[in-house]
Amino acid sequence: MLKKVSAAARKLKNRTQKSREGKAQRIVALDIGTEFVKVLIATVHGDQLNIIGSARVRQNLADMQAGAIADIAAVVANCDAALNQAEQSSGATSRTCVIGIAGELVQGNTTTIKISRKDPNRALDITELDRMIQLIQERAAERAKAKISEETGGKTPEVKLVNSALVSMEIDGYKVTNPIGFQGKDITIQLYTAYAPQIHIGALEKCANELDMDLLAVAAEPFGVARSVIGNDANSTMSAILIDVGGGTTDIAVVNEGGVEGTKMFSIGGRIFTKAIERDLNVDFVTAEALKVGLSTNRTPQVQRTPVEAALNKTLDVWLNGVELALSEFSSLDHLPHQILLCGGGASLDLLVEALKERDWYKNLPFTRRPTVQYIMPDQVVGIVDTTDREPDHTFITAMGLLRVAADTLGVFDNPGVSVRDRLNRMLKI
Question: What does the pLDDT read at residue 325?
Fold first, then answer.
């Protein structure tokens, strides 16, 4: 069945409705990354979220591995410190949070299923659509289990649905945005689903519990980024490749004509670039990180720039191969969007951006022309406004995407004419 709205979510939605009449509801986005914990506190004002507080706290090297929590107690301490800083900067607190999940074991794909109805003359209702979606989710779960088992070489893991959203629906070849009430024989549904190992989700739930936070949702981070730029337009034709370069992973989402086609992740992020400098120049990790960051801020001494760039270029080749391999798995698309949008701290590396723009890594992929590359900036995120005095950049976009998932879950952007597709999506995501 469609995932039902939990009692907690109903309470939160009621509180959100009350906030529209009085005191604003507050939501926390908790982006637990390999290098940093990032926190945003936002208030709900009508159909808009206003960011009123932000913070980031650096993680220790052993706290995270490949985007997944390795030391729960240490991560909880870092999250607590970041929450305290954000609360101090905003003068406000909130216990309602959304936490992001990343890592190469998070499986996000679009599944297409075609069903022939026994009675084509009977009007389609929500119960029948519910059964169809359940079938798709079951198939997607089995595929996710098999993929994770293959990649780990272990037993079939327990997985849990993280996010799900309708991509498209057709009845007898006719595309519809609201299938309810239509007659027809052949129903084709495309559904995006993201599954993650239960052990990773359990660690995030443990963190929320230790922090005394009311966990509204766990969201696949590339899905959140995608939602942040798609916005509220049910007829959106936006197509883009979204690349979030974190400390331990690179997360990719492909948006095709306003729908999330799929998400892919691989375990190469900013930290591996730092380690390349550490190894080749024989310096400690902190020094290597400063040299890496200094390339883009002109703080790296000129005499060291050439060896630092040489170390980075070796890793860039590996990273570009990872991007190419991830995008090659989107075999259902005739061609890939030519617009690439970047976010995440790892994307601050100028050499990485230049490599995407200038190298020929894309030529074996179904692009119609060389892709364009630019950052996602906060003012491009639909329905969310940053009211803090923090310098706007691309490094907090993932956290803003988590806020977007929270808003979707609570129905912040609903309006009286909200479509069946939107209502289903909200139920699917909770």
Answer: 95
Residue matched to tokens 């370069």: 245
The structure's pTM equals 0.86
Two structure tokens written together for 166: 């309708």
Per-residue pLDDT reduced to its tens digit, 225-261: 998 888 776 667 889 999 999 999 999 999 988 888 8
Structural domains of the chain, ranges and CATH numbers in brackets: 7-104+198-234+378-429 (3.30.420.40), 109-195 (3.30.1490.110), 266-375 (3.30.420.40)
